[in-house]
Amino acid sequence: MNYEFMEALDELETDRGIDKEILIDTIEQALLSAYKKNFHSEKNVRVEFDREKGDIKVFSQRVVVEDYDVYDAFLEIELSEARKISPNYNIGDIIENEVTPKDFGRIAAQTAKQVVIQRIREAERDIVYNEFMDKENEIVTGEVARVNRDLVYVDLGRIEAIMTKSEQIPGEVYKAGQKIKVYILEVKSTTKGPQIVVSRSNSGIVKRLFEMEVPEIFEGIVQVKSVSREAGSRTKVAVKSIDEKIDPIGACVGPRGLRVKNIVDELKEEKIDIIKYSDDPKEYIKASLSPAKVISVDINEEEKSALVVVPDDQLSLAIGKEGQNARLAAKLTNWKIDIKSKSQVNN
């Protein structure tokens, strides 16, 4: 241990933000364990790290006790013996003697190096964790590192993220080296470092894609009020404009449909219905069943349920294949929706 080592600790503090005092305290604890392990010491010892020179010293410690009251000679010393060393000692004082072994320097250097390496790893993990915590619920671009059964590992630069089967778009094929946009669903802190779970199927990615493609949404002029999605198949997005001059649906579709087309392309041809949000539940429910036409909507506020009547030729369109359109509309509006044709109601 020397000046160079202390300079290295100073650099770690400056460059990586690792507190030198905390690091030295950790090194001292590690050296204490190393001393007891390598020298089979039963003594109560203290390791001292010289902050200026980087020198390491080991001191044995014994407590001053009453004469004839010594229980363990390694840990205690009689008052009369202590006063032979110094007449100022009293019961309860600690007497220290340097017991630094000759070859302890080598062990100390190895131990300190291990502690520093471990602390650097922990600091890097903390940096990565904090960086991605700030990106939770955001979209990032990564590269498929490898595919292992149902898991897709995505390289995000400083760390690999995991995309489980449930977070993948059904039917989408992932290949190593492929660039993909993913939604950071969760950032966990584990004993092995940060673990990042990403998604392509979460509805959050749709909202973020609209924010990226539609300036009016990014600026807050148009708001995405709700998103319901069945990944790989269809999504409904409810939007509202806070400026009467701005058509929220037109803003999202974009010139020649380019904005929504870019989102559809990113989601591998997933169908996207953009509907106008309304504070009036009847109007909102009616719009949510687009592209089907609706005759009437009767609502029950207490049960938060609605009876929707549609023309006979619109019933299958309103319900959708395997009930998808009705299901997405119910999820979008957060209302229970019962759809009936005009003839069903009249009979």
Overview of this protein structure:
There is one protein chain. This protein is of the alpha+beta class and 347 residues long. The chain folds into four domains: 3-131, N Utilization Substance Protein A, Chain:P, domain 4 (2-Layer Sandwich); 142-199, Nucleic acid-binding proteins (OB fold (Dihydrolipoamide Acetyltransferase, E2P)), CATH 2.40.50; 202-277, K homology (KH) domain (GMP Synthetase, Chain A, domain 3); 280-347, K homology (KH) domain (GMP Synthetase, Chain A, domain 3, 2-Layer Sandwich), CATH 3.30.300. The chain contains twelve helices and 15 strands. A five-stranded antiparallel β-sheet has the order 7-6-5-8-9. Strands 1, 2, 3 and 4 form a four-stranded mixed β-sheet that branches. The protein has a three-stranded mixed β-sheet with strand order 10-11-12, with helices on both faces. Strand 8 (179-190) and strand 9 (193-199) form a beta hairpin. The termini are far apart.
Note the topology.
Layout: H1 3-16, H2 20-39, E1 44-49, E2 56-65, E3 76-78, H3 79-85, E4 94-98, H4 104-133, E5 139-148, E6 151-155, E7 160-163, E8 179-190, E9 193-199, H5 203-213, H6 215-218, E10 222-230, E11 234-241, H7 248-253, H8 258-266, E12 271-276, H9 281-288, E13 296-300, E14 305-310, H10 315-319, H11 324-333, E15 336-341, H12 342-346
Parallel strand pairs: 2-3, 11-12, 14-15
Antiparallel strand pairs: 1-2, 2-4, 5-6, 5-8, 6-7, 8-9, 10-11, 13-14
Helix pairs in contact: 2-4, 5-8, 9-11
